[in-house]
């Protein structure tokens, strides 16, 4: 059976998008390279270092530690794992807003930590007072989301950092989706705005890299050290990643997309996506839908959710609204 890949003409609520052509090409060339063995595959290892450096630039972090992960789920899991390993509690917990992505539930399950979900405020952002009430001396990690999956909300990261400091926990920011639009919007979310310890920022979402390409970043080497295992028979002596063999296509694709698009290409994606989101919000509002204002390019209205990814054009949205009108 010869199936064709999905055409993006009617994909309106996915966080995946068409890869940049140069990223597609780079991914294909590096299909058999394994960044998990950097001494045997030094070229792809070099691309990964450069990709991480650019992710650092995007998130306000000079000399970033980190790597290109399989996606946001792995990056979030590694943040929880590092915090758990660094904690001196016998029964560590993680406090996150209830708007956090379900990957934190997987992380808590796999790592056997308690996940405490705090109610959000009226604008669906983390409420620092509610997070503070759930945090205690066993809290290893406080989580903030910069661009929530459902409504694109940006949590008050500096206030969450204060909560983390008050209980001596690490602070993780999940910017898996938002990381490539937030540099062009006016929010405090990154390593430069607050004492953020770790961050998720995924090139395979708004970054226009092919799947799989997530991003895990850490301010401090000690975080990566907390993840390291020895790799006795490899030339490199240790590994901090979760998976062993990793996708060279993912790493090379991410590097190529970042090289082609940061910063101007991403700025254009943001400008167009945000304008489209505002246009759609207005179109839905004038038709009587209860619309959640798009502070980033995601429009929520009742059961409806449209993510204005780079492949989503005004024409697609006009067609969508016309379809709604004809129902
Ligand atoms: N953090 C945030 C804020 C996310 O939105 C997501 C995924 C993750 C972490 C996990 O990332 P990975 O899926 O890369 O592990 N958010 C999307 C969502 O749940 C994932 C997705 C993407 C779902 C494309 C469907 C789809 O077509 O909507």
Description:
- The chain is an alpha/beta fold.
- It has helices at 21-29, 42-58, 72-86, 103-111, 128-134, 157-166, 221-225, 248-261, 264-285, 314-326, and strands spanning 65-69, 93-97, 114-118, 139-145, 170-174, 198-200, 214-218, 229-230, 238-239, 291-292, 298-301, 304-307.
- Helix 1 runs antiparallel to helix 8 (248-261) and helix 5 (128-134) packs parallel to helix 6 (157-166).
- It is globular, with a radius of gyration of 20 Å.
- Ligand 0PR binds next to helix 3.
Could you give a quick summary of the protein structure above?
The protein is of the alpha/beta class and 327 residues long.
Radius of gyration: 20 Å
C-alpha geometry: globular
Bound molecules: ligand 0PR
SS content category? alpha/beta
Separate helix tally: 10
Going by CATH, the homologous superfamily of the largest domain would be Type I PLP-dependent aspartate aminotransferase-like (Major domain)
> Which range best describes the helical content: under 10%, 10-25%, 25-40%, 40-55%, 55-70% or over 70%?
25-40%
List keywords for this structure.
single chain; 12 strands; globular; 327 residues; Aspartate Aminotransferase, domain 2; binds ligand 0PR; 10 helices; Aspartate Aminotransferase, domain 1; 3-stranded antiparallel beta sheet
